[in-house]
């Protein structure tokens, strides 16, 4: 939001560049070398400062380069920022804010306002109206001590309304960095911020109209007419054109490059027309971004193409622009009334959000976290301060104190949020949720993750191999994970609820395939389909939350080590979702199975298992994970279409540290053998080895037999003698040392692999987990 004063015309420069220092010329007196020096210096310094102050979420070095620190030195300032270079910083800074708001508009989904829970409306309305009323009351109480321009009703409204609003673009970037996007508090804050921004846009319109109508009331009317015409053009013309682009783009294909270029250029065009009609230059890009259909294909590619150039190259100039106006040495006049008014507004907003959150049954800890998140400040507020400077509503000392308060609030609250709120805390349960301790003739609850269609057949095959029966049926909660691109708000869809609403917009080929699969096995498998759209770092939170609230005892995660045939060998391709499986293993509230599927993907889902016999091999190396894997395999062995071989690996020498694990292993294996003694399809063998090399050799010897599925524990409780000498073989892999070897191209097996990690009890009482899941009931 900037107009004429933000643009400085450069005059008096004879040439764009110097001939060289050997001709006695100073390159800093020429525009192009000066531009290159400023660009490189600002980007380097800003990113160094950003790295050092990352936990505090501070603007990237603008204040340090400004007159408060480095530019206080006149020689430094005269060389780096001479008068004829102001246009570089100011114009590029305004462009940075324009593209920042455009991207924020693209990612924002205003239709979310119609879908959010009532409690999000309560938080948003109380969090906006209470601080607005409180700030207005305090402002009119201290009105006589304010500057003449700041004491005007329109100015008071502008300041107090900005204190009451939490800008969604600011909040999202911090919530994303703290990895809270898919957490309960994160979703609540983002939804409330969208509602608050809708109210905030209305507040900005009122401010602009009243400000422009102070001297000529007719100007306010002209402003509203111009706004209506501009919005009608955006909504009626531009929006329809973008919808046409989406319709004409083939599914799965990127948007034509020419459309992307035209839209990105339209950001500047919209800013030009917005400034020409007196609507404030940054409003045009924001409204343009809001009419872009969010997500793939259009919204995603626009964010992808513009994010790097905007955030890496243009936004440092925006911070520099703010920093050049911020001057700590200007704080000598009467700035205290504004300081107290702003401080009171922040305090009232925080207290109001805290109280309404407690009223909605959030814990004190979560309520305080939410109030801190909703009080965060950032780039949008800085842009508003510049706009007020343009209106001559505030002076430099007022601008400085506002910037300092914004930086202080964010610097103080961001670390506190990290300390107060751990999104993984609800998953720390002390109840047994695993296969070993689940009674045999009870329903088994499973969460099955799906990244893409290729995961379907392997999942279906594993479910049928698991031998669901009428006495022991499966409730499978399938979770289709989609990476959030080109939009900010995460989406979690329960397809059973959507079907009751007759909403077909989220039906996909994956969902249809699962529906067909269930119809053929309705007696013993019940599929409950879900879809989660979120950023990759937060996907594990959706998985663990669903497992916790559906009382699952097993999570199945596909391992994205894609295999391709190459002369009966396999080769490794990029592990796309490695971080997802790693985080699930670290935080899951139940047992986790990592599935490496090597089955060819068929064209149909009916009749997944039609061959006469499937051979399974359990590699039992001891420990909790191995015991869990054996219990799962024991369920499979009940099927007449399954032959099972269990290989127990024993060390050639005893280890006192693993004596307890060995006793537990002996007890379970004795039970298993007694149960299956009369089953001719079950074979049990023991192999004694003295180091890891012999373990690998023994496994390689088994590989000659045709194996459809290898089952093994991941790593808990394995006797170290069995892995001695293999420490360099991916000890920290999601598959464990042995699983990683079997999945590698060196092993050469075409059988799928299931690596099991038994639930790790993390010692939180069951009450907190129960209360956290009430919203699912």
Structure explained in plain terms:
The longest helix is centred in the first third of the chain and has 32 residues, at 217-248. Helices cover 51% and strands 11% of the residues. The chain has helices at residues 31-52, 62-65, 74-80, 86-107, 118-141, 153-164, 168-177, 184-212, 217-248, 257-276, 283-290, 298-325, 336-359, 364-373, 379-390, 396-420, 454-465, 495-500, 509-519, 539-549, 578-587, 624-636, 659-676, 692-702, 736-743, 766-772; strands at residues 444-450, 474-483, 491-494, 525-534, 554-558, 563-566, 569-572, 591-596, 614-620, 642-651, 682-689, 709-713, 752-757. α8 packs across α9 and α14 (364-373) runs antiparallel to α16 (396-420). It contains 26 helices and 13 strands. The protein is α/β, with parallel strands linked by helices and 777 residues long. The strands form 2 sheets. An 11-stranded mixed sheet has the order 3-4-2-1-5-8-13-12-9-10-11, sandwiched between helices.
Briefly, what is this?
With 777 residues, this protein is of the alpha/beta class. It has helices at 31-52, 62-65, 74-80, 86-107, 118-141, 153-164, 168-177, 184-212, 217-248, 257-276, 283-290, 298-325, 336-359, 364-373, 379-390, 396-420, 454-465, 495-500, 509-519, 539-549, 578-587, 624-636, 659-676, 692-702, 736-743, 766-772; strands at 444-450, 474-483, 491-494, 525-534, 554-558, 563-566, 569-572, 591-596, 614-620, 642-651, 682-689, 709-713, 752-757.
